[in-house]
From TrEMBL:
InterPro entries: ClpP/crotonase-like_dom_sf, Enoyl-CoA_hydra/iso, Enoyl-CoA_hydra_C. Pfam families: ECH_1. GO terms for biological process: fatty acid beta-oxidation. One of its GO terms (molecular function) is hydro-lyase activity. Gene3D superfamilies: 2-enoyl-CoA Hydratase, Chain A, domain 1, Lyase 2-enoyl-coa Hydratase, Chain A, domain 2. The keyword Lyase applies. Keywords: Lyase. It comes from Thalassobaculum litoreum DSM 18839. This is Enoyl-CoA hydratase.
């Protein structure tokens, strides 16, 4: 089982369990997450906690080898499947919290961005490193990150692919809080308890009021991202970036 779901005291906890692969996302795992989110939606949960198994990673991003060698439509369907799954998180009427208990890169950070809130352990590392592979984020990162931390900071993170530590993430608003004790799950459950102690209708209405006030409907932005993410896979630099990653060498990009 790569995804587990447990319900306790009104909190649904979804745990990604591929710890030997740093909880990296493959298409099967994304499908499993989608199914578990459907279960959450019809459950009695008042809040959703998403975290990763082990102590090293929340989710270290996509399974790179699985992304290679696919045709144009397969690449587009892959982006749309990831977007649709993470959209289920954002669309939940209940608040969600990503407990970033280690690395959160690429699709892992994009999954956390789809949550209502983010909490990180002090040693957590985050980033969208797709540019280093000749690609761009394809699961919502180009749309959700600027809405959260502003256009300038988001573009810096996306265009440099740099890693952000927990303290900086807190300072720029990428995460809401850092855990304060060794029991990070208890800290996360306590945070969710704070934001789920009031009436669920009011919580749902408040979430909807905030999200609908954004200038551009996110579903329109996500269409643009899916198209451009798909096109980025067709470049020679993408082929080089993916191959270099697998071969554990520095890529040589040719701007083609």
């Amino acid at each position: 089982m790569t995804v587990t779901l447990a319900l306790s005291e009104g909190i649904a906890t979804l745990t990604i369990d591929r710890h030997k692969a740093l909880n990296a996302l493959n298409f099967s795992l994304i499908s499993d997450i989608s199914e578990k989110l459907d279960e959450v939606r019809v459950s009695d949960a008042r809040g959703l906690l998403i975290t990763g198994a082990g102590e090293k990673a929340f989710c270290a991003g996509a399974d790179i080898k699985e992304l290679m060698g696919r045709d144009l439509m397969a690449q587009k369907r892959g982006a749309e499947a990831g977007q649709a799954t993470f959209a289920k998180i954002a669309a939940l009427e209940i608040p969600s919290l990503a407990l970033i208990n280690g690395f959160a890169f690429g699709g892992g950070l994009e999954m956390a961005l789809a949550c209502t809130f983010r909490m990180a352990v002090p040693t957590a590392k985050m980033g969208l490193p797709e540019i280093k592979l000749g690609l761009i984020p394809g699961y919502g990162g180009t749309q959700r990150l600027p809405r959260l931390i502003g256009e300038g900071r988001a573009l810096e993170m996306i265009l440099t692919g740099r890693t952000v530590d927990a303290e900086e993430a807190l300072r720029i608003g990428l995460v809401n809080r850092l855990t304060e004790t060794a029991d990070s799950v208890a800290d996360a459950q306590g945070f969710l308890g704070e934001v789920t102690r009031y009436g669920l209708p009011a919580i749902s209405f408040a979430k909807e009021a905030v999200t609908r006030a954004l200038d551009l409907p996110i579903h329109e932005g996500l269409k643009v991202e899916a198209d451009l993410s798909t096109l980025s896979f067709r470049t020679e630099d993408a082929d080089e970036g993916l191959a270099a990653f697998v071969e554990k060498r520095k890529p040589t990009f040719q701007d083609r």
